Amino acid sequence: MSVVSKYNRISRIYDLIEAPIEIFLYGRWREEALSNLKGRVLEVGVGTGRNLEHYPAAAHVIGIDNSEGMLEKAREKAGGMQNLTLLLMDAEHMEFPDNTFDYVITTFVLCSVPDPVKALKEMRRVLKPSGELIALEHMRSSNRLIAWFEDLINPLMYFLIGDETTRDTLENIKKAGFTIIEEKNLAFKDVFRKIRAKP
Questions:
Q1: For the Methyltransferase type domain, which residue ranges apply (predicted)?
Q2: In degrees rounded to 5, what are phi and psi of residue 34?
Q3: 93 and 63 in contact (C-beta within 8 Å)?
Q4: For residue 116, which phi and psi values (nearest 5 degrees)?
Q5: DSSP state letters, the chain
Q6: What angle do CA 141, 7, 18 make, to 5 degrees?
Q7: Using CA atoms, how far apart are residues 128 and 124, in angstroms rounded to an integer?
Q8: Full residue range of the structural domain in which residue 67 is found
Q9: Are 139 and 168 in contact (CB under 8 A)?
Q10: Strand ranges across the sheet with 84-88
Q11: CA–CA gap between residue 123 and residue 110 (Å, rounded)
Q12: Are 55 and 83 in contact (CB under 8 A)?
């Protein structure tokens, strides 16, 4: 089963599954990362729209996802937002011109994109030279015990939702040609991180 099929299948209960971690961790990270943005913003992997409430009116947001089921939930959350457009689109093949966006946002997405470096190269392409990638992601820990646990649960997570817990996302961002300007550990040592990068 493809990653898209998995997300279409679980889209109706996805928010319920993630509710505890959203309440205790994700929600405040989203608020801190997104609440001061302005200009043209692309959110890659908008999912069920968990970030939408955190974008200010000064941000003109385009959210893309390749799961119609997840987008349906995002449309429900969007309500009457005038500064938002939601599109069905593949992160690895984006239909935007070069140098379009001031910000590209990913939140817990790069673990499930089939080819994360290819998708990141697309993100770099559509960013303006002065633009910025902001990524809230989980990734393989440098702590051996935590990494062992990630290796242990990786097959199950991939089977259930196409989520790979063992990716070196920081290195993937560098491979795509970005320059890291901030790397901040958020939780569980260095599993959850905020990364800001320039194209």
A1: 42-134
A2: -115, -20
A3: no
A4: -65, -35
A5: --HHHHHHHHTTTHHHHHHHHIIIIIHHHHHHHHTT--EEEEEES-TT-TTGGGS-TTEEEEEEES-HHHHHHHHHHHTT-TTEEEEE--TTS--S-SS-EEEEEEES-TTT-SSHHHHHHHHHHHEEEEEEEEEEEE---SSHHHHHHHHHHHHHHHHHH---TT--HHHHHHHTT-EEEEEEEEETTTTEEEEEEE-
A6: 55
A7: 8
A8: 3-198
A9: yes
A10: 84-88, 59-65, 39-44, 101-107, 127-138, 192-198, 179-187
A11: 12
A12: yes
Indicate which CATH number applies to the domain containing 137: 3.40.50.150
What token pair was written down for 81? 């937002």
User: Residue 85 corresponds to which tokens in the numbers above?
Assistant: 């457009």
What are the pLDDT digits (tens) for 125-136?
999 999 999 999
Domain count, the chain: 1
| Statement: the pTM of the whole predicted model exceeds 0.85 | yes
**Token pair of 132 as six digits:** 């910025």
C-alpha–C-alpha distance, residues 182 and 196, integer Å: 5
29: its two tokens? 């990270």
